[in-house]
Amino acid sequence: MSENIKGGQNKKIFNEIIKNALFFLATVLIIWFFPHDAQYKYQFSEGKPWQYDLLTATFDFPIYKTERELILDRNNILKSNKPYFKVNSSKENEKINLLYKDINKNIQGDSSLANNNLYFDFLKKQFHYVYSVGVLDDAQYINLANKQVRYVVIVEHNVGKTRNIADIFTEDKAIEYIFSQIPKGLSFSKIKDIRLSKYIESNLSYDLEITNKIKSDELNNISITSGRVQAGERIIDRGEIVSPEKFKILDSLKKQYQQEGSKKSQYVVIAGQSLIVFCLILLFYLYTRLFRKKFFTSKRFVTLTLLLIVGFTLITSVVVQRVNPTFVYLIPYCLIPIVISTFFDTRTGLFSHIITILLCSFMVPLPFEFVLLEITAGMVAIHSLKDLSQRSQLVQSAIMIFTSYCLMYFGYGMTLDGDFLQIKWIIFVFFLINGGLLLFAYPLIYIFEKAFGFISNVTLVELSNINNPVLRKLSELAPGTFQHSMQVSNLAAEIAVKTKANPLLARTGAMYHDIGKMKNPAFFAENQSKGNNPHDQLSYEDSAKIIIQHVADGVEIAKEAKIPKMVIEFIETHHGKNKVRYFYNSFKTKFPDKKIDEDIFTYKGLIPYTKETAIVMLCDSVEAASRSLPEYTDDSINTLVENIINSLLADGALNNAPLTLKQISLTKHILKEKLKNIYHTRIAYPELTNNIKP
Known about the structure:
With 694 residues, this protein is mainly alpha-helical. It has 28 helices and ten strands. It is 62% helix and 5% strand. Mean pLDDT is 83; it is low at 1-5 and 111-116.
């Protein structure tokens, strides 16, 4: 026994260490995600009024170009970038020498060319001009024309010359040019016979390496500034609208401040952030430990809540630092209270949401606006989705959250600006997308259910449907047990509502608590026909074993059907460690002197440890016993309920259940009233007699 106690203590200590480690890890990760630049003390936005006093430059600083301006500069360089071509200097001499050889061959057979060199001299002169200008092959020329390239740089002897592409020859244009220059003293036909295409060939080749190098140098040399602000210069005064030009100056001042601050006080900044994160996580830790002990004992609860807090903090950090700070309103923060409220309770959902929003507010450009909008939306989310059981509720909630975003942003904008025109209407589109993303809560809840073993109201509704395969099979094989389960579920749900337990969980658990009876339905009184009891052929011990076995059979059936663990707990606990009273008492009555093995007559289940499982045990015991009453009167029902529940209390069956004496008393009262309504006496209808005239 002492070893078991020690083992339990060690397990408890280990769980505590794990949970504390998770909180510490969450704190470290959040600090890691935080931007570690010194926080600028002024918050501003383009198109919004300046909320502070006159701002004057205390030091010289450059005006940095906006990202849009830098992109425009880069695009201009890319557009104006000229392709570079190398000149093949040997090409001209090669083709002139070839021409000379060919003409000398022809001279031997043509006396008209033998006496002068006018043709060679003319062509030599034209070749020199054409090759000095440059010749491109047709494919390259067409490619440049399609890209609308107007100028190219021709490099010869390490000297580059810019040429208009229209002035450069192609092979065909070069030949046309030569024909156009033939003087009157020379024969056109004889020059045509020479076949100039043999001697005109491209002498320009594209130099990719030098083209890319020049382009890269120009891009790297782009100036990131567009002016400078001198110390003492007036920047902006209270009430002035932050125009694009003012915004650029203020943003430049902020960047300069952060650069200087990061050099001087980065460690101080990290220390301050660490303190803030530690305090906020500590608040969440203390809240769960002090006010939600039943949740805090679960590692799954701690893991899920911290996963959501850290996850949304990470997403915010990436969006603000790497994408666009304005896009932060696209992030569906309301998923946090929706998910946590679905599995736990609304207060924990709201507290988790507030902690997350406060952490993220240190990263966004307008923290007050951000906190105002997101906390309001979170409250609306909790109000609109107190009990998520239908998909249509998500749509309604998304609409309400979108409306709250719009109203709060519109109101805040009018309060701050006093002008409709200054409101950024694009933000409303972000709110609409945000509302659409909230619809992913449904599959997200399903994923968390499977990953962490939780159970949502949506799943409970699906399980409690009588068309569920397990329940349908129960109604077919054990109709009496099915009716009993239905009765118990109605009683349990009513009591759960009045005792502030989960009525849907209690109802669903009650529906499944006796599914083990499907394996041997005839051995249970509610399924037996009159005068046919198989227990008559068995000993009290064997009968007790069969009755007790339905708990283990139920657990087995539930696991095969992949029923959630929280529902299986109702099967394990609805008899606890009580005795099979009928056969136990019968044995003792028939064999008063015989030593009894009490273990044979005792259920091997678990003692209820939640309100819901305890309620189902009480309802099951009372409802089953009520069927054996010889007559149904107020006194008989009152006595039955009192005896059954008091007996369970005396046996310690409710020792682990968080039910107060007041709640137990209320349970008795509800059971008495419900049973009286169920078994009410009817008024006898008078019979018609022959002497009654119409």
